[in-house]
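Look at a sample.

——
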Amino acid sequence: MNRIFRTVVFCVTAFLFLQFISLYLNWPQQLILGTVSILLALVVNRLSASRVITIVLMLLSVAATLRYGWWRIHTLVDFFSDESNPRVRIDSVFMLILIGAEVYTILIMFLGYMQTAWPLHRAPVPMPQDDSQWPHVDVLIPTYNESLALVRYTALAALNIDYPPEKLHIYILDDGTRQDFKEFAAEAGVGYIVRAEHTHAKAGNINHALTTMDSPYVAIFDCDHIPTRSFLQMTLGWMLVDPRLAMLQTPHHFYSPDPFERNLLQYKTIPNEAELFYGIVQDGNDFWNATFFCGSCALIRRSVLNEVGGIAVETVTEDAHTSLRMQKLGYNTAYINIPQAAGLATETLSAHVGQRVRWARGMIQILRTDCPLFGGHMKFTQRLCYLNAMLHFMYAIPRLVFLCAPLVYLLIGRAIIPGYWVTILVYAMPHLILSNLTNSRIQGRHRHSFWNEIYESVLAPYILLPTLLALINPKLGKFNVTGKGSTLAETQYDRKIAVPTKRLLFLNCLGLAMAPYRMFVTDPTHPGAVIMNVVWVIFNMMILGVAAAVAYEQKQRRESVRIEARIPVRIDLADGREIDAMTMDMSVGGAAIKVTGDVRFTLGETLKLAFPGQAGDAEIDAKVVGMRTGEVRLAFDLPTLAEQETLTRALYSRADAWITSVETKEVDRPMVSLGRVMRLSCFGIYQILRSFFPDKSTGAKGIPQAATGAAILLALALGTCSQAFAANQAGDVKQAVSAAFGRKAPAQTARRIPAAIDLASGAMPLLSLGESSIASQTVTLKDMGLVKPIEMRGPHSYYSLHFILSYAMMPRRASLKLNYSVDPSLDPHTTSLGVILNGITITTLTAANATEVHGGFTTVTVPIPDSALV
């Protein structure tokens, strides 16, 4: 009876829902319904953070989307039914292409809602108290052409996993057959495996290694994914309590910025591109028992791996294909969303594109050769989760359609959506607003508004052909290794990778230029249609502008990435004194350490550094390479394996090493995200314009020939500088100085100040550089191309200047001379001018300390730290 009752309720609800979405309304009626729906969603969204409210928003979004879809199809049918209309045959192709792209996005939206409706958030299962019951585990670290400096710390961290040593077996799988790897493995006491035939890339490497070992469980780590000491104790418990569990995946956490974060200077402001998948999609997959194997940071049951024939070799995404085969046999997979390893993100946009092309091609290969919809013992929801992952990589065609659709009307005068423009608007806006509102709520910490469009716009031109070829012939293409650990000596604009974006931007600019012609000459009776397409083009240009800015590759000179880490340390000085301190950031190359009290160091001084509570009483050698008030910078000297292992335990192996960085992510605010995207877009368009007009002193590729260093970025921001001032002025502005391109500020503006600050240009020296006592150089604002004084208004204002030094000039000393005035209406205690050079805060000038010299201007000379001249 319960089943019958539920069936009746479902049928009645479905019938009423279908009646609602197919209800015909004229545009004023639909305007009222759409407005009410949006207001209701806004109110409901603020009521609670509960999962039930999220599902309510999903249902509202689905209803608005289906009404829009029904209306679109209905108007298309009416349009094609009118055979007397001579435009039907000509416009039908464009209309069908656009409706096809919309159907794809609606399908992906529905599948995404289903996939993330109720993330599982699985907790770890404790291991047995008696460790004699713990099974043997093989830990595999496959490598091909990566450097030993990268693989070394992964192997040392694996050795330090908190597990009985006699049951933990570490192996380096060297597909490059390198002698230095063999020697390191012997010294570290880990296994070393090579093979004669290097077939099937990473999958073949692992499968060959499995023939030499027999532990019941296998953990796999990419050579740059460094495990924490708690990895096995956080994951193996589930394997012991669920005999049907074949694979347990943990997140791929990245301690370095991806190209979007780094090149746009948005690290820790916007989430990593992969964060959406590992932050919420995999938790949603886990609810439906459809977790994917991601090739690293995972634990696999060996017996099931043997049953499916080892790691799949038929596609270039061998990981997802392997888990699909396991689930087709009826086995379970699981996901624990607690970072237990961390690795390097792709360093350059070109490497990132190459990696995503491989993923896209591989997922389409699986769709063609082993479609999840057919065969096996999987539930329907499991099949949908895998299908969504594969269909996702078909976004290239729809994204390019949306970037070009308004141009069909503006450039060649053809209709793409039939109907009155107001009707189009009142049906489309509820769908767009509610879907964005719902996705912002679901994805809040893992994907900010409008960034999905940016990621797809960057990648779409590159994955289009590989995915189409994989649909036609799945055997086309080969496995490509993603390079990690590379460096970039100078900041430069990658013109080659930006070519598709340039062309799309040019077409959209051309469409925008044609708008007046459409408005006043060819189609004066439809101004609304012109305006609607112009708005669409402007939005596309904003997205493409950010996509262009990502190609501005920021320099990366450090071979080891600095990680923000608060780790207690003990500094042992040569005179026998011991100082307790705290690290600010650290890498395998060195650290910045905060010290308290009256402690003096000597540049070049050698000392010992210990990590109490993290790495026992072991010490490492360090040398002082920089000092400032309350801070000392050290370079590490790690000649022995023991010292390298000590640093590995302290920096990488801590069980909570990556938890804090996950919990402190900025939550999405759509309007803030929109403002950020608009600002970054302007910078991207500016870079494209620069690429068309290289400096006269540059070579054919526009790279400066007479520069010894990267362009120096000077960002001047008007805001408040002191937390103490802010604390004493309730309601005053608390906006901190921002870096160029809108770097994250710690507080929001409480009130606006109608004020201005001027920086004088002209003969006033801005920067004086000295190589020695007899050689000096002065650079003025005029030399930098400034033709009038800089004027900054409001707490969000900033100004950037770029300049390059002559190759003959190697400055050892420098000073910055500013001539400025502050509006007297400003509160002098809450107003400041921040100066940032190469990302380093040089000074913060407060209005209270300003001394008038002449004409209302104050002159100040600021010494530049040596660290900014390196």
Remarks:
- Residues 696-765, 770-774 have pLDDT under 50 and may be disordered.
- Residues 290 and 382 are 5 Å apart (CA to CA).
- The chain is about 40% helix and 20% strand.
- The first helix runs from residue 2 to 21.
